[in-house]
Design goal:
- With about 400 residues, the chain is mainly β.
- It has five helices and 25 strands.
- The chain folds into three domains: about 100 residues; about 90 residues, Lipocalin (Beta Barrel); about 170 residues, Glutaredoxin (3-Layer(aba) Sandwich), CATH 3.40.30.10.
- The radius of gyration is 22 Å and the shape is globular.
Length: about 400
């Protein structure tokens, strides 16, 4: 079995800038199957590799001679020769043989950039279904750039983060790699529709998709507000010995308690934590995170949570709620009927008013992310403090 290799040690160099020689005229080709690749420009510097993903750049710090860390998600890039190797996603369960999830890659000199025609707009998207059979489950946003096409796919509960690629001779190709997800998306354009679409996630999943030109869904806050009896304002968490404890969720007078329901395996949760850190730094808000993790073993779950807290530089307390399951997450909170997505964020006022915000529109969604920023900042303000200011 090939080594997974990645841990706390690489945190020390994760944010070091590169030095020495570099070669930015190369591409890393992830092999999703015999005929499908996801290709990204890569700059191999002495202390880190920089992988370009459209408007996002992923820094992969060197942690050993032939080993590079994948930030936040505890994966690794392992070279087996000068230009060949594999990516390990160590957060996924091992297979029946105890082997980690891995995708092979090779590094090649850059060829000429693929030509890209101009395109922009929004399309309703159906996965594994034909347009009109059901309501669209997602929307695709595209914008032409100087070097190709960028965009994202949005769902009611989150986005696919930064997608980049090209559109030429009515053929679309998009891709992304953020350390947790490796996507490749292709389709053919026919009269403002997308047909013959293929969606690949790593080397383990493939489905078909199609799209029809549409107006963008209205920007909404995605919140639900209700009152909760004070004796129900708690959450059941798992302590380090594996026992359940009740944690009070009653905020201090004059403050809002923000409860972040997340998983350390979730890229949208990573983006949300970065926004919550901005709110925390502004003060006047209490914050805790309740994590629902993949490992069954409690100690393994805490090890992953502790690492995530360090990697994300989270200054507030992080608790274990249980396994990564939306039903388990809802059952941990006596006052919640359901949890529809990771992340879900609770804004709790001192009088027992709870605002539930489901899902998250990240930085790749543009104006929708701006709305999320404004919504989070507004909801994190105490209604008691606000009413006193308005007297």
């Amino acid at each position: 079995m090939r080594q997974a290799g990645c841990g706390f040690v690489w945190v020390v160099v994760a944010f070091c800038s590169g030095c020495g020689s570099s070669n930015s005229s190369e591409s890393i080709h992830f092999q999703l199957n015999d005929s499908t690749e996801a290709v990204f420009q890569i700059d191999r510097q002495a202390q880190q590799w920089l992988l370009s993903n459209g408007d996002d750049t992923l820094a992969l710090p060197r942690i050993a001679d032939q080993l590079f860390g994948v930030p936040v998600f505890n994966g690794s890039i392992q070279l087996t020769s000068e230009n060949h190797g594999f990516w390990t996603d160590s957060l996924r369960p091992t297979n029946e043989d105890g082997e980690f999830y891995q995708v092979d890659f090779q590094i090649e000199p850059n060829t000429e950039h693929a030509s890209s025609d101009s395109i922009s707009g929004t399309w309703d998207v159906w996965f594994d279904a034909s347009p009109g059979e059901t309501a669209a489950t997602a929307q695709l946003d595209l914008t032409s750039t100087e070097t190709g096409v960028s965009g994202t796919i949005r769902t009611p509960t989150g986005d696919y983060r930064y997608l980049s690629g090209h559109f030429h001779q009515q053929q679309l190709h998009l891709q992304t790699f953020d350390g947790a997800h490796l996507f490749s998306i292709d389709a053919q354009r026919e009269e403002n529709q997308w047909i013959n679409g293929h969606f690949y996630s790593g080397n383990h999943y493939h489905t078909f998709w199609s799209g029809v030109e549409a107006s963008a869904w209205p920007i909404q806050e995605g919140t639900e507000v209700f009152g909760v009896p004070m004796d129900s304002l708690y959450v059941r968490v798992v302590n380090r010995t594996g026992h359940l404890e009740n944690l009070s969720l009653i905020p201090d007078t004059g403050q809002t308690l923000v409860v972040d329901i997340l998983g350390s395996w979730c890229p949208n949760c990573m983006d949300e934590v970065r926004l919550l850190k901005e709110i925390h730094d502004a003060g006047q808000t209490q914050l805790i995170s309740i994590a629902f993790e993949r490992p069954e073993d409690v100690q393994e779950a805490f090890e992953r949570m502790d690492e995530f807290k360090v990697l994300m530089e989270i200054p507030w307390d992080l608790y274990l709620g249980g396994r990564a399951n939306k039903t388990i997450a809802a059952n941990a909170f006596p006052f919640l009927e359901k949890v529809v997505s990771f992340p879900t964020t609770l804004f709790i006022q001192h009088d027992g008013t709870v605002t539930v915000h489901s899902g998250f529109n990240g930085p790749a969604t543009g104006d929708r992310y701006t709305t999320e920023q404004a919504t989070f900042k507004r909801l994190s303000q105490s209604t008691i403090a606000t009413s006193l200011e308005n007297r």
